[in-house]
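Help needed: design a sequence for this.
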């Protein structure tokens, strides 16, 4: 009877080892679940970015107005015959004058 109990105890320990530490253990399962959740969040972020880029591509293909707007905003381009005015705030101008004066 003692041998039987000893064998059962050893089997129980082996099963417990596998449950907690071996491949397919609970700890590994938890780690993999966290990786899956992280990948899902990343995929959602990238999906949203792709949707935004797709909309931009469609807008750029749709006409010249969008291209002209981007050229004006991002590159600072103006049409031929247009005049570009750059307004400087009063505070900025005074600050520059003060910096240019020798002390």
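Sure. Designed sequence:
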């Amino acid at each position: 009877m003692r041998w039987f109990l000893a064998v059962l105890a050893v089997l129980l320990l082996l099963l417990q080892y596998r449950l907690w530490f071996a491949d397919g253990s609970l700890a590994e399962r938890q780690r993999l679940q966290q990786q899956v959740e992280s990948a899902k969040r990343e995929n959602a972020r990238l999906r949203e970015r792709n949707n935004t880029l797709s909309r931009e591509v469609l807008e750029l293909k749709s006409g010249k107005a969008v291209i002209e707007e981007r050229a004006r905003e991002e590159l600072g381009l103006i049409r031929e015959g247009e005049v570009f005015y750059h307004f400087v705030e009063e505070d900025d101008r005074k600050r520059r004058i003060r910096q240019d004066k020798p002390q």
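Residues 26-62 form the longest helix (37 residues).
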